UniProtKB/TrEMBL annotation:
Keyword terms: NAD, Nucleotide-binding, Oxidoreductase
Protein name: Glutamate dehydrogenase
Magnesium as UniProt keyword: no
Residue numbers binding substrate: 80, 104, 364
Site location (Important for catalysis): 156
Species classification: Bacteria, Pseudomonadati, Bacteroidota, Flavobacteriia, Flavobacteriales
Source species, domain of life: Bacteria
Domain called Glutamate/phenylalanine/leucine/valine/L-tryptophan dehydrogenase C-terminal: residue spans: 197-428
GO molecular function: glutamate dehydrogenase (NAD+) activity; nucleotide binding
Biological process terms in GO annotation: L-glutamate catabolic process
Organism listed in the record: Aequorivita sublithincola (strain DSM 14238 / LMG 21431 / ACAM 643 / 9-3)
C-alpha cells in the first residue's frame, strides 16, 4: 500500500466565444480608458432566459427542448439579435453572441441594443411540422420577453424567413384583435409579402461584399480576378459569393457542414447553389469541383477568405497556414483571439464581424421602420441606403484605426463602446 496519489493534471480549457468577446471588449475598453462603472455594466448581460418546453412530435411522443434568449444591453434602444437553431447553442454562446450584437448595433449607429438566442437542436432531424410546433411553442414560452419595442429577434444559423413568419404569427395571436397588426415588427427577416423587406435575404452577404469592395478601393485594387474561399454556403456565404462573382472575383473553395470542395479554375456560384438545393442543402459531390479534407480548407490558395459559418473557426491551429491576405468575417466570432494575434503578426487584414456582417442588422432596421411606419420600401432604395450606411461606418473605422495605429477590430469596438459610454454618462444610473 502506498499513500501516493495520482493527481490528474487539469486539462487546459478550450477557449469559448465568450472568452473571446470579453477579451476583445477589454482590450478596446483599455484603449479608450472606458469609465470603470460602464465597464462593469457592459461586462455582463442584463437578462438571461432559459426555457425548457415540451412539444409533441409526429410520432405522438413528447420531447422537451431547451431555448435561450440573452439580452446583453439596451442603453441605445430595444434589444436586437438573431435566433440560432444548432446543437452548440448554450448559455455561453448566447451571451457571447448577444454582446457582439450590442457592439454591432452601436457601431452601425442604430437605435438598438444587443441580444441573441436560439434552441439547442439539430433541426435537420425534424419534420417541417415539428419545427413549426417547436418554434411556436418557444415563442409562446418567451411571451413578453420579446416584443416590437423591447426585443426583436431575426434569422441566424438554421433559421430563416419561414421561422420568422411563425414567430410573428404566434406572437401576434396572443394580442387582442385590434392590437395584432401593430406587432408585426416583433421579428425582422420575415418573408416579403408577410411584412418582410425586399432584399433582407441578401442584406448580410451584400454587406460582406461591400466591405471587401471598400477595402479594395481604399488600396487601389480591383476585385476582378481575385480568388476567394467561403466557409458556410448559407444565407451569408451564398450572397457574399454571388455579389463577389458579379464583380469578377473567382470562387475557388467552399466548405459547409457536410464537406469541402475546391477548384482553382473557379466554381460557378449559382451552379453550386442549385446543386446544394437539390442535394438536401449539401455541397458534397458537386461535379465542377473536387472534394478535399476539411482540415486543409483555410490553407487553400486564395486572396480573400470569408468565414461565414460558426464561431472559433480560425485559431492558432490553422492561422499560420492561411494564404489569403484579407479575412472578411461574415460569421460572428469566426476568429479567436489567439488566431487573430497570428494573423496580425503575419500582416493579414481582418474586416471584423461587427462591421463586416452588419448589413444584416441594418436591413433588419429598415424592415422594422417599414412595418412601424406602414410603408413598403423598394429594393433599389434599400440597397442604396444600406451601402451609404456601411460606407460611413467603414470610413469611420478605417480612419480611427489609422489615427490610433490599431487594428480594425479594436477600432470598431472602441467606436461602438464609446457611443454606449456616452449614453450612460448622459443619462446616469437609476436610482
Ligand atoms: P445558414 O444557416 O443560412 O448557413 C450556415 C452555413 O454554415 C451552412 O452552409 C452550413 O452547412 C454551414 N456550416 C454549419 N456548420 C459548419 C461547420 N462546422 N463547418 C463548415 N460549415 C458549417 O446561416 P447564416 O444565416 O448564413 O449564418 C452564418 C453566420 O453568419 C453565423 O455566424 C451567423 O451568426 C452570421 N450572421 C448571419 C446573419 C444573417 O442575417 N443571417 C447576420 C449577421 C451574421
Amino acid at each position: 500500500m502506498t499513500n501516493e496519489q495520482t493527481v490528474e493534471k487539469p486539462k487546459p480549457l478550450k477557449r469559448g466565444m465568450l472568452d473571446n468577446v470579453l477579451e476583445q471588449f477589454n482590450s478596446a475598453a483599455d484603449k479608450i480608458d472606458l469609465n470603470p462603472n460602464v465597464r462593469k455594466i457592459l461586462s455582463i448581460t442584463n437578462t438571461e432566459i432559459i426555457i425548457h418546453f415540451p412539444v409533441r412530435m409526429d410520432n405522438g411522443e413528447v420531447e422537451v427542448f431547451t431555448g435561450y434568449r440573452v439580452q446583453h444591453n439596451n442603453a441605445l434602444g430595444p434589444y436586437k439579435g438573431g435566433l440560432r437553431y444548432h446543437p452548440t447553442v448554450d448559455i455561453d454562446a448566447a451571451r457571447a453572441l448577444a454582446m457582439w450584437m450590442t457592439w454591432k448595433t452601436s457601431l452601425a449607429g442604430l437605435p438598438y441594443g444587443g441580444a441573441k438566442g436560439g434552441i439547442q437542436i439539430d433541426p435537420s432531424i425534424y419534420s417541417k411540422g415539428e419545427l413549426e410546433r417547436i418554434t411556436r411553442r418557444f415563442t409562446y414560452a418567451l411571451g413578453e420577453n420579446i416584443g416590437p419595442e423591447h426585443d426583436i429577434p431575426a434569422p441566424d444559423v438554421n433559421t430563416n424567413d419561414q421561422t420568422m413568419a411563425w414567430i410573428a404569427d404566434t406572437y401576434m395571436s396572443t394580442k387582442s384583435t385590434s392590437e395584432r397588426s401593430k406587432n408585426q415588427h416583433v421579428v425582422t427577416g420575415k418573408p416579403v409579402g408577410s411584412g418582410g423587406l425586399e432584399g433582407r435575404d441578401r442584406a448580410t452577404g451584400y454587406g460582406v461584399y461591400l466591405t471587401i469592395k471598400f477595402w479594395s478601393e481604399k488600396n487601389n485594387e480591383t476585385l476582378k480576378g481575385k480568388k476567394f474561399i467561403v466557409q458556410g454556403f448559407g444565407n451569408v456565404g451564398y450572397w457574399a459569393a454571388h455579389f463577389l462573382e458579379n464583380e469578377g472575383a473567382l470562387l475557388v473553395g467552399v466548405q459547409d457542414a457536410f464537406g469541402s470542395v475546391q477548384n482553382q479554375k473557379g466554381i460557378t456560384v449559382e451552379d453550386l447553389f442549385n446543386y446544394g438545393k437539390a442535394n438536401n442543402g449539401s455541397i458534397v459531390g458537386f461535379p465542377e469541383a473536387s472534394a478535399m479534407e476539411g482540415k486543409d480548407f483555410f490553407a487553400l490558395d486564395c486572396d480573400i477568405c470569408i468565414p461565414a459559418a460558426l464561431g472559433n473557426q480560425i485559431t492558432k491551429d490553422n492561422a499560420r497556414s492561411i494564404k489569403a491576405s484579407l479575412i472578411a468575417e461574415g460569421a460572428n466570432g469566426p476568429t479567436d483571439v489567439e488566431g487573430e494575434k497570428i494573423l496580425i503578426e503575419r500582416g493579414i487584414t481582418i474586416i471584423p464581424d461587427i462591421m463586416c456582417n452588419s448589413g444584416g442588422v441594418i436591413g433588419s432596421y429598415f424592415e422594422w421602420l417599414q412595418n412601424r411606419n406602414g410603408e413598403l420600401w423598394q429594393m433599389d432604395e434599400i440597397l442604396e441606403k444600406l451601402e451609404k450606411k456601411l460606407r460611413t461606418t467603414f470610413k469611420k473605422v478605417t480612419a480611427y484605426s489609422e489615427e490610433n495605429n490599431i487594428d480594425m477590430r479594436t477600432a470598431a469596438f472602441s467606436i461602438a463602446i464609446a457611443r454606449i459610454e456616452k449614453a450612460y454618462i448622459l443619462r446616469g444610473i437609476f436610482p
